Amino acid sequence: MRLFLRSEIETVALGEVLGRNLSPGDLILLFGELGAGKTTLVRGIARGVGFRGRVSSPTFALAHVYRGNPLTLHHLDLYRLKDGETEELGLDELLADPRGAVVVEWPEAVRWPKKRIEVRLSHV
Prior knowledge:
Blueprint: H1 8-20, E1 27-32, H2 38-48, E2 63-67, E3 72-77, H3 91-96, E4 100-105, E5 117-121
Parallel strand pairs: 1-4, 1-5, 3-4
Antiparallel strand pairs: 2-3
Helix pairs in contact: 1-2
C-alpha cells in the first residue's frame, strides 16, 4: 500500500490508526531518511495505544517506553548502533512483553522476526 501524507497532522493520524490496531507482540519497523517523519508517526502510534504524554526520538537514549491503555509501546531508535551492538538491548524480552508492542526507527542493524510491519517513509 502506498500513501501520500501531506502534513504532520496526517502522519500523526495514520500513526493513531496503527496504534489502535496493535496487539501485544506486534513489531513495526520504520525506514526512512533523517526528517522523513518516523518520530512523528510514532507520536501518533503512542496516542493510538492510549499514551497521552510527550513523545520524542530516543536517538541518544536508544529506547523510550510509553505506557498506554491497553498497550505499552516500546520505542527504539537504533540510528547510532553498529552491527553486533544490539544484543544488550533485550529485544527478545521486549517482543515477548505480554502487554507491549515495539516500534523501531533505523532497524537496519538487526535481523528481525518475519512477523512484522514495515513502514517506509520518504520525502516526495
